[in-house]
């Protein structure tokens, strides 16, 4: 049976000022490490989707203004193991990138049905640990200063 998940999502890279990055391990796919991700529900603004997903997946409370919107979108093919969540025929997703800077001692409370573990890693190690190329590239951009560039309204980094 086809699902009803909307093929529009957010990626939220949670990091410390020192560029430690929070990664979450997917509960149903051991070894799949990622940042916070999640689909837009209805017509909710993407920034609200990001706030909701951060709270649901990590227990970290943030406000829309706490997020950096990178004004960067990635279109990618949905992995076969997740396609049944989407309407029949949907094969691609549009992901919008955000980041959230938190204090170094911020703890994550995981949603056990979604994630089995969490860990903080230096940005280069975090990028190498991600299974998703879009997540990896966003973390590499973080290390290159992307959120500061994005605040200026235009992201033009090439990695």
UniProtKB/TrEMBL annotation:
PANTHER family linked to this entry: ADP-RIBOSE PYROPHOSPHATASE, DIHYDRONEOPTERIN TRIPHOSPHATE DIPHOSPHATASE
Organism ancestry: Bacteria, Pseudomonadati, Pseudomonadota, Betaproteobacteria, Nitrosomonadales
Cofactor note: Binds 1 Mg(2+) ion per subunit.
Gene3D superfamilies (UniProt xref): Nucleoside Triphosphate Pyrophosphohydrolase
Protein name per its UniProtKB record: Dihydroneopterin triphosphate pyrophosphatase
Keywords of the record: Hydrolase, Magnesium, Metal-binding
Cofactors demanded by this protein: Mg(2+)
InterPro entries: DHNTPase, NUDIX_hydrolase-like_dom_sf, NUDIX_hydrolase_CS, NUDIX_hydrolase_dom
Positions with a binding annotation for substrate: 5, 26, 37, 76-79, 132
MF terms (GO), sorted A to Z: dATP diphosphatase activity; dihydroneopterin triphosphate pyrophosphohydrolase activity; metal ion binding
The Nudix hydrolase domain, residue ranges: 4-143
GO biological process assignments: folic acid biosynthetic process
